[in-house]
Write a structure and sequence with these properties.
single chain, about 625 residues, alpha/beta, ABC transporter transmembrane region fold, Rossmann fold, 2 domains, 6-stranded mixed sheet, about 10% strand, elongated, binds adenosine-5'-triphosphate, transmembrane helix, transmembrane, Type_1_exporter, ABC transporter ATP-binding protein/permease
Length: about 625
C-alpha cells in the first residue's frame, strides 16, 4: 500500500470531525481530566481579556485622577492576573501530560494486538513501513492533537467569542470594523482545509514508503553490499525523500499563504479601528481609557486568531493519522476457530492423522484469470507417518503447508487433524497440536533459549536441552552466554544453518502431535545435515509429519512421498515406487545433484533415470 495506492479513506468524502470523533473510545477513560484541562485553559485565556478592562479603569480612573494609591492597586491587580494566567496554563499541562501518554500507549497496544491477529494475507499486502509509521509517527500526531489543537481550538474559539462580545459592548462600531474580516477568513479556512487534507495524506503515506525503504535497506544490507546495490538503493531513497520534501514544501506553502492572510486581515482591521477610534476620542465621543481597553483587547485576540491556521493544519494532520490508524484497525481479523458454522465443534479422538479433502486455495490478491494455486488436493498422512511433499518450484508446497496452521484459509475443501476439521479448533488448540518450521527461519530479538521455548508454553531447561539435542543445535552452548545469548534482530548474528537448527528446535520442543516442516534441512552443510537427519528420525517416529522436500536426502526421512503438480497431488507412494512410476518425480529428484545425495546416491540402478545412475548404494527409505 504505497502512497500512490488508493486507500479507503481517499475514496469517500472525508470529514475531519468525523475522523477525529473515532478517537473517543480511547479518550473516554481520560475525559474528566481532558475536559477539566480545557475548562482551566478557557478560564486562563479569558483572564487575559480582563487585563484590558483593568487598564481602562486605570487610565480613566486613578491615572486621570492622579491617584498614586489607585495606580499601585491597578499595577498589583495586573501582576496578579498575569501570574494567575501562567499558573492556570501550567496546571492544564500537568493535567493532560500523563493521561495523554496513556492514550497513545493504549492505542499503540491495540494496534499491535490487531497486527498480531490480522491474517497473513493482510501482512502480504501491507508494506511494513506503512505499519511502522502508523504505530509511531501517526500516533504521536494523535497525542499532540489531543494535548494541543483539541484544547486550543476550544479555548481560542471561546476567547475570540468572549473578546468580541467585550469589544462590541465597549464600542459597537469599532467592534464591527474588527469583525469585518471574519467572513472572508472562514471561507479561506474551509478552502485551505480541503486542499491541505489531501497534501497531508500524501505526506503521511510517503513517510510510510520511506520507512519501508529504510527498513529494507537495513535488513537487506548484506544483499545490498554483496551485489554492490548501494547506489541504486540510495537513489531509490533519495527519490522518495525528494517527493516527501516537495509534499512537505507544498504543505508549508499552503500554511504560509493562510497564515499571511490570517495575520494581515486582522492587522488591517485593527489599523482601521485605531484611526476611527482616535477620531472618536478627538471628537470627545469616546474616552481615552475605552480606546486603550479596546485596542488592548483587540491585541490580546491576535494570538487566538493567528493560531487558528496552524491549529486547523494540525487537526488535519491528526485526522489523517486517525484515518490511517483505523484503516488497519478496521481490517477484518483472521477467522476464529468456531467462525465457520459448518465446522464440527468437537474434536475427534480417532488416530486418523492429517487429511486434506478437496482443498482449493487462491491468494486473495491473485488476478481472477489466474487458476488457484491449489485446485483440489486430496491427501492422507496416516497417524505416525512422515510424508514428504515434493513438487516443482512454485507448485504450491509452501502454500499447502501454511494451510495446516491456518496461516491462510482454504477457499474450498477441508483439512482435518485426527478427524477434526481445523476450522472447528480454537487457534490455541491448533497451535498446541501443530508445530511448524519454515524454510526461512525467523528468530526474534531474544535469547536463543527464549527463541526455542517460544514453541512450548511453560517449557523449561529440560525441554530446551532435548530440543537443542534433536536439532543438533549444540553450538548454542558455545555462544558467549550459552543459551542466554541474545541472538540479535532476526538472528542475524548466527549463520543460516544455525538459525535453521534453532527454528527446528522451536518446532520440536513442545513434542507436537503434528509437525509441518518446510524444507528444514536446506541451509545445512552435508555433515550437519546427516546429524540433524538422524535426530529428526527420532522425532518423526513419534509424530505425524508433513515435510516439504527439495532434496532427495530430505525425502529419505519420509515413509511416503506425495508429488504436487498442477495444483493437485498427482502421485503418492514410497520414494522407490515413485522413481519407477513418475517421470516428473524422477526429473525432480535427479535435478538435485548434491554431493552424496544426488541421483547417484538415491536412484536404484534399475530406475529409468533421466541421468544415468552411478551404481552407489542409496540410503534406504524408511
Ligand atoms: N503471498 C502470496 N501472494 C500471492 N501469490 C503467492 C504468494 N505466495 C506465493 N504465491 C504464489 O503461489 C505459488 C506457489 O508458491 P509456493 O511458495 O507455495 O510454492 P513452492 O512450491 O513452495 O515453491 P518453492 O519450491 O520455490 O519454495 C507461486 O506461483 C507463487 O508466486
Amino acid at each position: 500500500m504505497s502512497a500512490s495506492a488508493d486507500s479507503p479513506s481517499q475514496e469517500r468524502p472525508r470529514s475531519v470531525v468525523r475522523s477525529l470523533l473515532r478517537l473517543w473510545p480511547y479518550v473516554r477513560p481520560v475525559r474528566v481530566r481532558l475536559f477539566t484541562a480545557a475548562f482551566v485553559a478557557v478560564i486562563a485565556s479569558c483572564l487575559s481579556l480582563v487585563i484590558p478592562l483593568v487598564l481602562k479603569w486605570l487610565v480613566d480612573g486613578p491615572v486621570a485622577g492622579r491617584d498614586p494609591g489607585g495606580v499601585w492597586l491597578g499595577g498589583a491587580l495586573l501582576l496578579g492576573l498575569g501570574v494567575l494566567e501562567a499558573v492556570l496554563f501550567g496546571f492544564r499541562r500537568w493535567l493532560v501530560a500523563r493521561p495523554l501518554a496513556g492514550v497513545e500507549a493504549a492505542m499503540r497496544s491495540a494496534f499491535y494486538r490487531r497486527l498480531q491477529r490480522l491474517p497473513v494475507s493482510f501482512h502480504d499486502r501491507w508494506p511494513s513501513g506503512q505499519l511502522l509509521s502508523r504505530a509511531t509517527t501517526d500516533l504521536q500526531l494523535v497525542r499532540m492533537f489531543l494535548a494541543f489543537p483539541l484544547t486550543f481550538l476550544l479555548v481560542n474559539g471561546t476567547t475570540i467569542a468572549v473578546g468580541f462580545v467585550i469589544l462590541l459592548l465597549q464600542d459597537w462600531l469599532l467592534g464591527l470594523v474588527l469583525l469585518a474580516p471574519v467572513i472572508p477568513l472562514v471561507v479561506l479556512c474551509s478552502l485551505f482545509e480541503t486542499k491541505y487534507s489531501k497534501v497531508a495524506r500524501t505526506a503521511q503515506d510517503q513517510v510510510g514508503d520511506l520507512t519501508t525503504v529504510v527498513e529494507e535497506g537495513v535488513l537487506g544490507i548484506r544483499i545490498i553490499k554483496g551485489f554492490g546495490r548501494n547506489r541504486s538503493q540510495a537513489r531509490a531513497f533519495a527519490t522518495l525523500s525528494r517527493s516527501l520534501r516537495s509534499t512537505e514544501l507544498r504543505k508549508a506553502r499552503l500554511l504560509a499563504g493562510l497564515w499571511a492572510l490570517i495575520m494581515a486581515l486582522p492587522e488591517l482591521a485593527i489599523g482601521a479601528a485605531l484611526v476611527l477610534g482616535t477620531l472618536q476620542v478627538a471628537d470627545g465621543t469616546l474616552s481615552a481609557g475605552t480606546l486603550v481597553a479596546f485596542l488592548s483587547t483587540a491585541l490580546a485576540l491576535r494570538w487566538p486568531v493567528e493560531s487558528i491556521g496552524f491549529l486547523i493544519a494540525m487537526s488535519n494532520d491528526s485526522a489523517t493519522a486517525t484515518d490511517r490508524f483505523f484503516e488497519v484497525m478496521d481490517e477484518p481479523e483472521a477467522a476464529q476457530g468456531d467462525a465457520r458454522a459448518s465446522a464440527p465443534r468437537t474434536e475427534s479422538v480417532r488416530e486418523d492423522g492429517l487429511r486434506f479433502e478437496g482443498v482449493e486455495f487462491a491468494y486473495p490478491d491473485s488476478p481472477a484469470d489466474v487458476p488457484p494455486v491449489l485446485r483440489g488436493v486430496d491427501l492422507h498422512i496416516r497417524h505416525g507417518e512422515t510424508l514428504a511433499l515434493v513438487g516443482a518450484t512454485g507448485s504450491g508446497k509452501t502454500t499447502l503447508t501454511a494451510l495446516v496452521p491456518r496461516l491462510h484459509e482454504t477457499t474450498r475443501g477441508r483439512i482435518t487433524l485426527d478427524g477434526a476439521d481445523i476450522t472447528g479448533l480454537t487457534r490455541a488448540r491448533l497451535r498446541e497440536l501443530v508445530a511448524v518450521a519454515f524454510e526461512e527461519p525467523t528468530l526474534f530479538s531474544a535469547t536463543a533459549a527464549e527463541n526455542v521455548l517460544m514453541g512450548m508454553e511453560g517449557g523449561g531447561p529440560a525441554e530446551l536441552d532435548r530440543a537443542l539435542g534433536v536439532a543438533q543445535a549444540g553450538f548454542v552452548r558455545n555462544l558467549p552466554a550459552g543459551a542466554a545469548t541474545e541472538v540479535g534482530e532476526q538472528g542475524l548474528s548466527l549463520s543460516g544453518g544455525q538459525r535453521q537448527r534453532l527454528a527446528l528446535a522451536r518446532a520440536v520442543v513442545g513434542g507436537p502431535r503434528f509437525l509441518v516442516l518446510d524444507d528444514p534441512l536446506s541451509a545445512l552443510d552435508v555433515h550437519t545435515e546427516a546429524l540433524v537427519e538422524a535426530a529428526l528420525r527420532e522425532v518423526l517416529a513419534t509424530t505425524t509429519a508433513l515435510v516439504v522436500a527439495h532434496r532427495p536426502s530430505t525425502v529419505l526421512l519420509a515413509d511416503r512421498v506425495a508429488l504436487l503438480s498442477g495444483g493437485r497431488i498427482s502421485a503418492v507412494g514410497t520414494h522407490h515406487e515413485l522413481l519407477h512410476t513418475s517421470a516428473e518425480y524422477r526429473t525432480l529428484m535427479s535435478g538435485s545433484p548434491q554431493e552424496g545425495h544426488g541421483p547417484s546416491a538415491l536412484l536404484p540402478a534399475d530406475a529409468p533415470t533421466v541421468r544415468p545412475a552411478h551404481g552407489h548404494e542409496g540410503r534406504p527409505a524408511r
